[in-house]
Fold this protein.
Amino acid sequence: VPDNTLLAAARFHGHLGPWLVLGLRAGAYARRRLGGTPFELTARVTCPKRPPHTCFIDGIQLSSGCTMGKGNICHVVGDCCRVEFVRHRSPGRKMAKTPGRPVAKVVLALQPGVRAEVSASKGDIEHLARALYRRRIDMLFRVLPS
Ligand SMILES: [Zn+2]
């Protein structure tokens, strides 16, 4: 994720926070890993129903292209935090009413230590956000299949 993406994300979302950054990293990883276009992906996000955890969803939308507007992201209220990306057989450029056959999948589950680190953070959350932005993906998430 290039630095200007971080700035654009903070501008879109309204602030720079760790949950936003975790979402950005997860979505960017899924795009790299699964390839294709945002029209071929769906995302299913599991996290608690209120901010700051839901900031995770904004980060995912920005970097994965799975968005509320396109209808290819859904939020399941649950334990923090996990996202499942599925690449489907291409429906072409236009929006499909139902996604095509699944062809690949990647699941990212937040490392418990990172959750604890973010929950315990006080004060300079921008500093933490920037640190998470640079951390190796496997230090942030358990990635399945690896
Ligand atoms: Zn936020």
